[in-house]
UniProtKB/TrEMBL annotation:
Gene Ontology biological process terms, A to Z: animal organ development; cilium assembly
Domain WDR11 first beta-propeller: 22-318
Ranges where the WDR11 TPR domain occurs: 956-1125
Domain WDR11 second beta-propeller per the UniProt entry, residue ranges: 480-820
UniProt-listed Pfam families: Beta-prop_WDR11_1st, Beta-prop_WDR11_2nd, TPR_WDR11
Protein's recorded name: WD repeat-containing protein 11
Cellular component GO terms held in the UniProt record: axoneme; cytoplasmic vesicle; Golgi apparatus; nucleus
Secretion signal span: none
Nucleotide-binding listed as a keyword: no
Keyword Glycoprotein in annotation: no
Annotated organism of origin: Lates calcarifer (Barramundi)
Length: 1187
């Protein structure tokens, strides 16, 4: 049995290279933990943890322009498993939805023939997770079913649509970035197209709008810096179209809602990032670059913290975090994003520039940078506890670490995972009036970027490729399937085709590599030719490279300067001899073993057009001679007195003899080669040692043109000419057969390796073919324009049944003999590093792994045998609670639905347990990115802080009016009156505002005035003035009625907002429960959101029921287990015990009272002291009923 394993059967794969400009926006990092990257018409799937390409998807015929991973915001079980699903759009308008694991297309969609502008999976409802929204140029948005390819609806708009962004807090809101401005849509639905054309607003460039610039000389330089930019940007969004001189709309690079707080949007310009408050349509913050700074390309806002990842034109990624309000400030004057960390820039050239950045959506502390040369640079954000030795950024307030880990306060001895996610690295941004947490629990931290992975692509074509000698029984124990790739910059890249990874990169030549020939499994010869001088002469470089050591030397010594270019090099089958063929110079014959020139042919030697070595040689007879020579040398070495010990020492003596015979090179095998001249005549040359003999000559075949290439294997010789003819010679039968392929110039032909394998690979200018030379028939064909869109540059066999093709799109493909570009199964790959991705497992295995990680109540301790080493210590920590475990596992699995549920559940379970006195108080509140799910007290503070900022930034009467309305709803009547009295006398609303100010200041709580105002408010609401009626009801402290009216008229989000800022907990709970019922209704079908609302209200029993009714059994069981541990379900048990007691079932009541903790002790005593008087009655009733 062989004690080693060799992967003889190589998997099909694609080695990718530089990106096309159309691939610039085709990159996405999914919740599944993988990066998808478009490269020409292929799509790479990259594992960012190990920096490996684990899949390449090939089916598109045009360049890929958009890729988008499906969202994971749904409950996963066997019928809805963890799966890798990706949508991609290309420049011809085709959309393909992929099953990434198998590498197959799930469905294909085609609407128009222009490049797809944008793609997004819908995540906002529980009914279907297959809906895909696409922008088809010039002005259509189409909703597709990504599972079946069915078009659900189509909507056109007046302007060309560039991109879109969904509101993460309200899926019915979306914004379209068009060629002229922004279109806001407020009625987006998956069931029907938006009914209206949307609200169209125009964006004016910060530098150009007349509203932003002050009178100044024309030559005055534009001011720079954040402060000056804020002064300049007073009004950005207008309902009127600006004049042509005042606007440069192409400056706006990107539009995106902020996922960290509601109703905020960012607009990206090359030198500014503008933060807009959409309620005021007003800029409330600017990130500006100084004059000497590097412009922006892209910005990605974070959800876990109010932070921005920015990509600059020099490839530098910066992280900017919103500044906390200090305790001395009454309110924030502007949103300021401080630079907290930046990574190293790249060297930008004409061909090397940054394209796009992606951020891990699960943890938001990993970034990937895609560079035009095919590199993927993977950066990780690290935290460093600031000590005295660390210097902070000048003038910046310190950042502190959070006081909790995985949603729970960190125990004194509890282990934590360093740099798990952004929210575990830096604490929450403080707002006005909020006291900072105790400093004893926090550490000041600094952030830094660390390059954790680098994936390099192939350089620019053209390429010269050559596979190493084939696998045999003799080299099986040390064989590696290495492919040498010569590049245009003179380097040679050696790839291991088992893993697809770069084995070595060697800088060998100073100009383009023209050809490579292996001389052993670990060494090769490569040649390059410089550009010709005015006499047509070049500098030839022929280098011998030893792979293990990297040693490289000029094989021809000082030769090579000012001579005709080398056309080809050919190494003999036994790797003894080398023929170097020149364009206008006789060939040279070299001995590879000694590096000596055997023969330089005479000047009258015919011009060589094609050449090939014969596979026949006299090696067997040579071995017999060598054995005889070894025995003779052994006999000479041994004296007569030592004859008796010959047998014992014969092995070592024979080894000595063998080494001596090899070093002396006394015997060399005889080998042959054939070549053709310009007339098509075939010459036969024999080489043995340093003897060269001219053999037979065969006259040209009249049916053949000028011979371009020759291949020889066994008894078959094949010639290809410049006219596309193939001539098959059977040397044994002395027959020849000519086949016209009508494909034009035959550029190269190669026989497949393996004994008896007579397959032949033929390369033409327009493609390639595989022929069976035994049957003399074509096996497969590939032609540019017909089944591929790339041109073949070079060919070779990598195994007996797989070919390797280099193409002009910068890729090298390993294909089956059929030469159909196809993706490969990910589970067939032989990866160097193990990949953590549960989505690659079969559904049952993925769910088993998840259950194993979550809870093991069947064993006394938590054991850990099948997960990442760095997680083991934390998962086995006895202080690591069930809630923390659920949160960590949801991050490990990239499960968006689980993460949202357990984040909210963890917070409120601890919060309600603390209010009942069973747990210590958590020091933090729920992040504001959860909006109305946050605690009312914090939500109110945030809204007050926000309205103060709006007040500072207002620049028109409309802004002032909106601020006053918000202040009235928030109960800030004094400040609202001041704003109402600011209305100028020439304003048409002057009288109304003055009367409203009087009304607000004179309202009393007397019955008649309240009745009158309530009547007026009701009439206003009935007559379509909902907002005004709600304001009046809030003035007389009837906000609960106002919420009911808002809900009646379908303003559910507004009602929830008002309930959080104005109502007491009981009234607010009623309003939010009605909202939860509405979310559960069939026409809305957002039960998962309803569950989060109920969690924030502490309705844990109802949440458990809903989870069970939705068949989310594992989540329900874990949630109820967590509720029991925190004691927050004891009230439900107590109520149930009371119900049972009222029915007379006192034993059952005692059981449930015992589970209700201290609150059930009194009830237990009552149950035990009184006998169950109802049991007999109940028994009698049952007897009667049975009879």
């Amino acid at each position: 049995m062989i004690p080693y394993t060799v992967n003889i059967k190589l998997a099909a794969r694609t080695l990718t290279g530089t990106l096309n400009l159309q691939n610039k926006t085709a990159v996405d990092w999914g919740w599944q933990g993988l990066i998808a990257q478009g490269c020409h018409s292929s799509i790479l799937i990259i594992d960012p943890k190990t920096a490996q390409t684990i899949q390449v998807l090939e089916r598109h015929k045009a360049n890929v322009v958009k890729v988008k991973w499906s969202r994971e915001n749904y409950y996963h079980n066997l019928s809805s498993p963890y799966c890798l699903r990706l949508a991609s759009g290309d420049a011809s308008g085709k959309i393909i939805v992929w099953d990434v694991v198998s590498g197959t297309a799930h469905c294909e969609i085609q609407e128009h023939s222009k490049p797809i502008q944008d793609l997004e999976w819908l995540w906002n409802q529980d009914a279907s997770r297959d809906l895909l929204l696409a922008v088809h140029p010039p002005n259509y948005i189409v909703l597709w079913n990504g599972d079946t390819g069915t078009k659900l609806w189509k909507k056109s708009y007046a302007e060309n649509i560039l991109s879109f962004s969904f509101d993460p807090f309200d899926p019915s809101n979306m914004a379209l970035l068009t060629s002229e401005g922004i279109v806001f849509i407020t009625d987006f639905s998956h069931s029907k197209p938006p009914s209206s054309a949307g609200k169209k607003v125009y964006i004016a460039s910060p530098h150009a709008s007349p509203a932003h610039t002050k009178p100044a000389p024309a030559a005055a330089p534009a001011p720079t810096g954040a402060k000056k930019a804020l002064n300049k940007v007073k009004v950005l969004i207008t309902n009127e179209k600006p004049t042509a001189e005042a606007v440069t709309l192409n400056d706006c690079l990107q539009l995106s809602y902020l996922p960290s707080k509601r109703n905020h949007m960012l607009l990206l310009y090359p030198r500014e990032i503008l933060i807009l408050d959409l309620e005021l349509s007003q800029t409330v913050g600017v990130v500006a670059i100084e004059r000497s700074g590097v412009p922006f390309i892209q910005v990605i806002p974070c959800a876990q913290r109010d932070a921005l990842y920015c990509l600059h034109e020099n490839g530098c990624i910066t992280l900017r975090v919103c500044r906390s309000t200090t305790a001395t400030e009454e309110s924030v004057q502007e949103l300021v994003y401080d630079l907290r960390s930046q990574c190293d820039a790249i060297r930008v050239t004409k061909t090397v520039r940054p394209y796009r950045m992606v951020i891990c959506p699960v943890n938001e502390n990993n970034a990937g940078l895609m560079v035009s040369d095919g590199r993927a640079m993977l950066w990780e954000l690290k935290e460093e506890v600031a000590g005295k030795s660390l210097t902070t950024f000048s003038g910046l307030s310190p950042l502190y670490s959070p006081v909790s880990f995985c949603g729970a306060p960190l125990g004194p001895n509890q282990k934590r995972i360093q740099d798990l996610c952004l929210s575990s690295m830096i604490g929450q941004t403080l707002i006005a009036g909020e006291a900072p947490p105790p400093s004893s629990n926090q550490h000041e931290v600094q952030l830094k970027f660390l390059l954790t992975g680098l994936l390099s692509g192939l350089p620019l074509p053209p390429f010269a490729i050559r596979m190493c000698p084939p696998l045999t029984t003799k080299n099986i124990n040390h064989y590696q399937p290495l492919l040498a790739v010569g590049t245009s910059n003179g380097s040679v890249l050696v790839y291991n085709l088992t893993s697809g990874l770069l084995h070595k990169e060697l800088s060998v030549h100073s100009c383009e590599v023209r050809g490579i020939e292996w001389v052993s499994l670990t060494s090769f010869l490569s040649f390059a030719t410089s550009a010709p001088n005015n006499m047509g002469l070049v500098r030839n470089e022929l280098q011998h490279v030893d792979l293990p050591t990297g040693r490289c030397f000029a094989f021809r010594g000082e030769r090579g300067n000012d001579e005709p270019p080398i056309e080809m090099i050919k190494v003999s089958h036994l790797k003894q001899y080398l023929v170097v063929v020149f364009r206008d110079k006789p060939l040279e014959l070299w001995d590879i073993r000694t590096g000596t020139l055997l023969r330089e042919m005479a000047k009258n030697f015919p011009t060589v057009t094609a050449l090939e070595w014969s596979p026949s040689h006299n090696l067997k007879s040579l071995k017999k001679k060598q054995m005889a020579a070894r025995e003779a040398m052994a006999r000479q070495t041994v004296s007569d007195a030592e004859q008796s010990s010959v047998e014992s020492s014969v092995i070592s003596l024979l080894q000595d003899a063998e080494s001596k015979s090899e070093t002396s090179q006394a015997i060399s095998a005889r080998e042959h080669f054939v070549f053709t001249d310009t007339d098509g005549q075939v010459y036969h040359i024999t080489v043995e040692g340093n003897t060269v003999k001219d053999g037979a000559r065969i006259p040209p075949d009249g049916s053949m043109g000028s011979i371009a290439c020759i291949a020889w294997k066994g008894d078959t010789l094949v010639l290809g000419d410049v006219d596309g003819n193939l001539n098959f010679w059977d040397l044994k039968a002395r027959l020849s057969r000519g086949i016209p392929t009508h494909r034009g110039w035959v550029k190269k032909i190669r026989f497949a390796p393996g004994k008896g394998n007579q397959k032949l690979l033929v390369m033409y200018t327009d493609g390639a073919e595989v022929w069976d030379t035994k049957e003399v028939q074509m096996v497969s064909s590939m032609r540019i324009g017909r089944n591929v869109n790339y041109r073949i540059l070079d060919i070779d066999w990598c195994t007996s049944d797989k070919v390797v093709l280099a193409s002009d799109d910068g890729c090298i493909r390993v294909l089956e003999m059929a030469m159909k570009s196809a993706s490969y199964r990910m589970d067939e790959q032989d990866l160097t590093d193990p990949v953590w991705c549960p989505y690659l497992l079969v559904p049952r295995a993925a769910l088993t792994l998840k259950a194993f990680l979550l809870l093991q109540p069947w064993s006394g301790t938590f054991t850990m045998d099948i997960t990442q080493v760095d997680m083991k210590s934390v998962l086995q920590d006895p202080e690591f609670s069930l809630l923390q475990r659920c949160l960590l596992v949801s991050r490990l699995f990239g499960d968006e639905s689980d993460l949202h549920f357990w984040t909210v559940a963890s917070h409120y379970l601890q919060s309600f347990a603390q209010s009942e006195g069973t747990q210590p108080s958590p020091h933090n509140h729920l992040d504001i990115c959860h909006d109305v799910l946050c605690e009312s007290s914090y939500f109110q503070k945030f809204q007050l802080d926000r309205v103060h900022l709006q007040e500072v930034k207002r620049s028109s009467y409309e802004h002032t009016k909106k601020c006053a309305d918000q202040l009235l709803l928030l109960g800030q009547t004094d400040r609202a009156v001041q704003l109402l009295l600011e209305t100028s006398a020439d304003n048409p609303s002057y009288y109304c505002d003055s009367l409203k100010a009087c009304l607000v200041t004179t309202i009393t709580s007397s019955g008649p005035s309240q009745s009158t105002i309530k009547l007026v408010a009701t009439n206003m609401i009935a007559n379509g003035k909902l907002a005004e009626g709600v304001q009046l009801l809030c003035l007389i402290d009837k906000a609960a009625d106002a919420c009911r009216y808002l809900q009646t008229y379908g303003e559910w989000n507004r009602a929830a907002w008002l309930a959080k800022v104005r109502l007491n907990p009981a009234e607010s709970s009623d309003v939010l429960k009605r909202w939860a019922e509405h979310l559960c209704s069939p026409q809305v079908n957002q039960k998962s959101k309803a569950i989060l609302v109920l969690l924030s209200l502490g309705c844990f029993y109802k949440v458990g029921e809903m989870l069970h009714s939705m068949r989310q059994f594992d989540r329900a069981a874990l949630f109820i287990e967590a509720c029991l541990k925190y004691g927050v379900m004891e009230a439900s048990f107590l109520d149930y015990a009371r119900l049972l007691r009222s029915l007379g079932l006192r034993e059952g009541a005692a059981l449930w009272a015992s589970r209700a903790g201290s609150a059930g002790e009194q009830l237990m005593e009552d149950c035990q002291s009184v006998t169950n008087v109802c049991v007999c009655d109940c028994a009698e009733f049952l007897n009667v009923w049975y009879q």
